[in-house]
Give the backbone structure.
Amino acid sequence: MSTTIQKINETIATANTFLITTHESPDGDAVGSSLALASYLKSIGKDVTIHFCDPVPDLYRFLPLAEAVSQTIPDKHYDICFVLDVGEFGRAGKAVVTCPNIGAFINIDHHLSCDEFGLINLIDSNACATGALIYRIIKAAGHSITNEIAQSIYTAVITDTGSFRYSNSNPEAFVIAGEMIACGVNAWNIAEKLYESQPRKRLELLAQVLPTLTFSPKGDVASVTVTMDMYEKTGTGPELTDGFINYPRSINGVEVALLFRELKPGSWKIGFRSKGKVDVASLSAAFGGGGHHNAAGCNMDGTFTEVRDRLFSHLDKVL
Ligand SMILES: [Mn+2]
């Protein structure tokens, strides 16, 4: 048993008041790992507060304890603050970073580079999800996994592995998923909540976005574009564009997909996604952006055609 996990379990046993937090714009792993840990700590009689700087996205509101997540930090002392899945401390939000009421931080993460800002740091970049690290902690403590905990861990694993499609879908991911199903998780119920319950407006926006599909002259880059006009027509906003970039990426022969999002006239946020061969973090860095090997982004100013042509010609040159 990892000594780090042992230390965490010893700390859990002796501490009483816990704050649990994660990164801004929380994804399925951020929400799932936080709520799984919260369910576990509550089930062993601990005092638990869950704080996210951003609200829980509607998509994940079905998870147990999602309604307990607060955007503020109640003013009291916390023996321990768990910071999950952040990559870097600052992404937990200013309220956490500057909170004067925290005894010690425990940092649990699976990002490649994460500063060791905690008193204890459980960082394993081989873990498929931060939810997998929460699973290891609960198992090491010899505690049984309740259905509530299982729903959240399953959601963390299924979302961070892209439903077991991404290269982080390691044996442990499947072991955990199998065990969560054995603990009573209904795979279809969760899949239906995550993938078969889209707001109608998201598809109405997508119907505007797909006709903008464009290819670079060489054809290995494809893009789609979202304008403010489209938001207005469909009564939507940027929060519904998650996943749109996967459509151009899914095309045979395309290695890099781009999503152009208009922030205000003449100002664009560009998302980059790679199928794996191309490192889009370094591509976006050439335009002042950054990110990971498969997912990155940058901001650019100019008319749409200026911005798109600059990117297409640069990418066609370097790919
Ligand atoms: Mn994660």
Remarks:
- The first strand starts at residue 17 and ends at 22.
- The chain has a mean pLDDT of 96.
- The longest helix spans residues 28-43.
- The pocket of manganese (II) ion is lined by residues 29, 85, 110, 129-130, 160 (CB under 6 Å).
